[in-house]
């Protein structure tokens, strides 16, 4: 339907003139407006000249002439009229009208439909239990309206399902051509009907093919009506609450005829100034305004105050209005309310006054409370209720068959000794049972609070009593002394005392929570939950009946996807809190929280990211008990014996004992390890890729991007993932002036691992060297860059090349200490993991641990067949003897080798001489026929003889080295065999591992002997943690120097709460006179000179007498 806000013409001829001018453009508009104009005239029986209003003001005119005087809802009525106001046009399928109570929803819809004269059925959903009953009621209502209109009779319809209902509606529509409107008031009740009921009634026009509309009236929003199969969304019309001015107009309609309008308006302004802030319900305000007006005009009728004196009238009625706020929703009768001093019911008032009027002593009130507890609690359960279990074993109570007694209906008798025992138990301080205290029992018997029961002849020594005070009386008495009696009388606390009587009690609480959880008060609902927890702790409730964990988890997981921001944020916060408390610490919870990282709601995404960033570290400081913090019971007991006995020291001793026992129990418990949530993710590769894609796609804040990058870097480092696009992305931001650049450096170090290709990380190192480690930057920037390079190379040493490392190690001689120390830490790192890459002078003296370290290739994995160093555990005593024998043999061998070397050198010289002389004699004795050697041939022979000498010497050295290597190989092979035997055939204990660690640590500091080599590789123990600490990168000073401002802050912080130095005047009155000692300090020395001389000249006896007198005087002063 096309709506126009133009003014309607004064009469129909003007409309005809418009269509004559431009028939094509005004034709449709004329037809539309003519229908509205004609229907308006027919409804109000008006002439065309009497109505000259716009279409939106038409409905306002309709409301103003109604008998019910509907005001303050003009816009809503206009919208309703535009939807269902024309009978010849199709109406919308469904309309949802919602708003607070008493906002005019039902009244306006009913009034409008009455004037439109449609075939209407009004249904109050509270009165109907099911859909079948509702179908029959609607059809009967529609048929009744047809009978009243036409006067004919029709047969009743009986519907069992929605199809029969639709067929019946078609038949009714054939007999009556009027539009059909179904109004469902309090429609939130139909949510419990059949699943198909709500979707069907919202689409009746489509299903039946007739002009029908469904109007739903509710006080809750449409989001609460979601069904499993889905529903058609209706047109929603919201009725807001009335404003203060609108309420004044509505309340003015109930004005009394005896007073004028201005006077009643002034009263309403005073009335609403008190009630408008706390109540907007029109029905309640109408009722309270009518009742309070009678009290408002009382002084006027008695002629004590004039009507125009509003200030005096306000002072008279203000106290009454404020007191009536407490009973605005109690629905009290008018007669009771109009009584002059109405406060509470007479019974409660009399009980309270009676309890407060008793002038009982303090301990007598506790005696009365003890008597009431003895009457309503079984005697055999006093130990469980009033005493703490000191021992681990509890005494078994034999079950005796007794008649069932309801403790809340019938009180028990008790003896005086039991009452006194409970009296001492409920009192916090120790009280002696004396005659004055026992005399209070007879006083309470005379007052009727206690009564003597039983025959005193059978039991002469034990008198039995019974408490006659009511429950309310005891509660008031207990409140006066600050005693929580409900903790000893509640069914949750005493439920285990009555297992037969309270069998159905837990189920009743569960039923209340399941059926009335929406309407219950928050505190009441929390109290019921606490009661169920107490019952579960006492084994009175099965865990499956209390809570089904899987159902609750599924509910929380589904709430995470809720479009409502508060619901999704609350669900993720609850799951994180339960994970941190080790309640839901399974894989399913972690992966559901991981889905929150991709939420479109920023709060949910940030909470999920913080979860993965906050649970990685194990809090060793809190788990490990520090010896300094633990209480030393021996010192505490000795100090308590020596010092003066006071209540404060007794409390301190008690507290120290409790903390000592707690620390002892904590030590005996097994250690609990909190694994990181990042280890529990199902597919970390896919999770990291999606997170990184989200960073590139979304335009989030810089802080959110930092958190996401942190999570991605931790995933890459922990799971050794391949995400090669991550490194160039961060490389763009590696500049000293970049915001939070240290965190970005931490992320790039965390994302480094051994499986990252060196070609990917090599540009990162070059960027760090060019942008950070240059002399144009400050020393702090250079040190941070070197620390980052060290952390990256610790995790991926193959990314560093020899030239770059040589350039970086030259900074070990830099003038700034921070840069020098960072360069030395880089050199120390490469000494441990890859010493071959360093220069020879930077490698240092080799030790047994790193002499045979070999640089592994990319992707190479070295596995050990045994635990390194475990050979020290194999027959230590035998091994010690063997080692001593081996050392003796080695010493002898070394001595022989030294002597052999010296002898061989002498022998070599002698042999050379003898050979030369022999050769010369042979050459002389030869015949002339032998050819003489030329000079050149002699020189060649001498060179050959020289080479043979070196070869002989080298051969002997090779033999010695071969002998030593064979010995070392035998020794290492034997150690390897022992280590493999121990690793495979023996379970190593913590003590054994400590011995192994000591042996390995000894190798790190023991320098290697020449020629001794280890044949098996030692498994490298990576001391670096899974994650990179930000302090490792930012640690450029061992201890920063404090500037002047920081020193002043520390000084002022130490001065807080400290007493001033100097003399402390402890006198209560600072204006009183001074003592003689203080006056003596102000005297001149010439006045005291003679007295000091006499003091010096005193004899020993005089000094002794003076001291004695002084001590006596001091004793008297005490």
UniProtKB/TrEMBL annotation:
Q: Which UniProt keywords apply?
A: Nucleus, Protein transport, Ribosome biogenesis, Transport
Locate the compositionally biased regions of type Acidic residues.
896-914
**Stretches with biased composition (Basic and acidic residues):** 886-895, 1056-1068
Q: Which Gene3D superfamilies match?
A: P-loop containing nucleotide triphosphate hydrolases
Q: Which domain of life is it from?
A: Eukaryota
Compositional bias segments (type: Basic residues): 1044-1055
Q: Listed GO cellular component terms?
A: nucleolus
Q: Does the keyword Coiled coil apply?
A: no
In which compartments does the protein localize?
Nucleus
Indicate what this protein is called per its UniProt record: Protein SDA1 homolog
Protein's organism: Cyphomyrmex costatus
